[in-house]
Amino acid sequence: MLVIGELINASGKKVKNAIINRDSDFIAGLAKKQEDAGADYIDVNVATGSGDQAGEVDDMKWAVNVIKEAVDKPMAIDTTDYNSLEAGLECCGEGTFINSVSAEGERLDSFLELAKKYSSPVVALPIREGIPETVEGRLEVCKEIINRADTLGVQRESLYFDPLALPVSVDSNNARITLDTLKKIKEYNGVKSTIGLSNISYGLPQRELINSSFLLFAMQLGLDSAIMNPMAKGAMAAVKSGNVLLGKDYMCAGYLKAYRAGILG
Amino acid sequence: MESYKNLAEAVENGEEEEVKKLVQQALENGDVALQIIDQGLMKGMEVVGEKFGKGDMFIPEVMISALSLQSGIKMLKPYLEEGQRSHIGKVVIGTVAGDIHDLGKNLVKMMLTANGFEVIDLGTDTPVEDFVKAVEEHSPEVLGLSALLTTTMPEMNKVLDALKEKGLKDQVKVILGGAPVNQDFAQKIGADLYAEDALEAVKVLKEQVN
Question: Which of A4, A22, B115, B129 is the most buried (most CB within 10 A)?
């Protein structure tokens, strides 16, 4: 189970200010902390909303270079803007995650072309004119994306479908729908899965409890990765213990390593 | 009055059937509809808003309270006299075109409803012309625009331009929200108001309608 560390995201005030003020120590520190906590990829979102598109490209170049210096982990370029994505991939090279594509608008083909060029794994969201409410609706969009990827020659193994976790606080069926969607995605040949985790617990107290329980359910269905806060010890402990219990951690080596690193809680 | 206190509590606890029963009793008692709303239903919802703000109540509870409130208001609407309103202001709200994020917008909608506003929700991925049409049709005091992507923020600009073009800009206050949006941006594109989060939106809009 790959962990994509989500903390470098300009929707948070501190990160936003650090990007605007070019505070490389702050960004490098946040990357390092996530690496230490067990993140396999470092997500980079620089959408501060204060600059124009050209500004966002500059912000992306700056941020990925700072992170490249600070850690040994590959990155996930988190943007809806083609030029920012291209700039990020160019700096980071092959194997960098693309976060994300969907079936909305024009983005799908151009992003998939970049995925092919850079052998990038891609987070794929089953969204088209909004989020389909039903499992069937989401799967239909997944199929559309798979078809486009097949046509453009993008490997199925590089598609990481996100079954879209929506808050259970808003509708009690939301987790069920997400898990059922995940189960069906796992039946498609070759494709992989991921999940933006923290949304599920929005609006509830003790979010960590909901996040880690949900993660375990998803892992049992074969979840391949999660976009999450690696410094949240509960969720990280769920990843490590889940791997052990699902037979994905030979001789419990990963679990014991995490124990010694003090990241199990 | 004791019965209004019970009604307020029923709203706070999200007991829809109890709310309906108490509203019915008050009507049979000959109480004035507006009074039942102001002193009973809305009082309960005010408490909900306060508790939510302090983290003592949570989204599912606020939703159930808001549903109970709406059932009560629905029963009372036919009894309101001409010119009396069941709400303190009208807001049209929506996420701009190309953007399907609705968590924040829905929270704002919920909190505004909870605080006595009538909210007309245009949903997500809303084309410019739909915002304009809704302003023409509903004549709201306020139009709320939400965007969660830097790539969809320019849509807010387009909505403002379209309102100006139609001569509607002076009839409605425009408030912006969404993670990448800020006060500077709102000012730059000529929006009237900006709110950082749902609670601030309630505060800012209450000042507007008072």
Answer: A4
| C-alpha triplet A222, A224, A228: angle, nearest 5° | 120
Q: How far is CA A122 from the centre of its chain?
A: 9
Give yes or no for A153 touching B (CB within 8 A): no
Residues in chain B: 210
* Tens place of pLDDT per residue across chain A (265 aa): 999 999 999 988 899 999 999 999 999 999 999 999 999 999 999 988 766 677 899 999 999 999 999 999 999 999 989 999 999 999 999 999 999 999 987 889 999 999 999 999 999 999 987 889 999 999 999 999 999 999 999 999 999 999 999 999 989 999 999 999 999 999 998 999 999 999 999 989 999 999 999 999 999 999 999 999 999 999 999 999 999 999 999 999 999 999 999 988 7
| A49 CB within 8 Å of a chain B CB | yes
* Gap between the Cα atoms of A254 and B2, Å rounded: 63
Tell me the pTM: 0.85
Chain A residue closest in CA terms to B127: A129
Nearest-by-CA chain B residue for A104 = B98
ipTM of this predicted structure? 0.80
Distance of CA B12 to the CA centre of its chain: 18
Cβ distance A214 to A197 under 8 Å? yes
- CA angle A179–A181–A183, rounded 5-degree value: 70
Phi and psi torsions of B172, nearest 5°? -145, 140
Instruction: Answer whether B58 sits within 8 Å of A131, measured CB to CB.
Output: no
Query: What domains lie within chain B, and their CATH numbers?
Result: 2-79 (1.10.1240.10), 89-209 (3.40.50.280)
Q: Which of A170, A172, A201, A210 should one mutate to test binding to chain B, selecting the residue with the greatest count of B CBs within 10 A?
A: A170
Under CATH, what is the fold of the domain A2-260?
TIM Barrel (3.20.20)
How far is A153 from A182, CA to CA, in rounded Å?
A: 24
Which of B58, B180, B182 lies at the smallest CB-CB distance from A205? B58
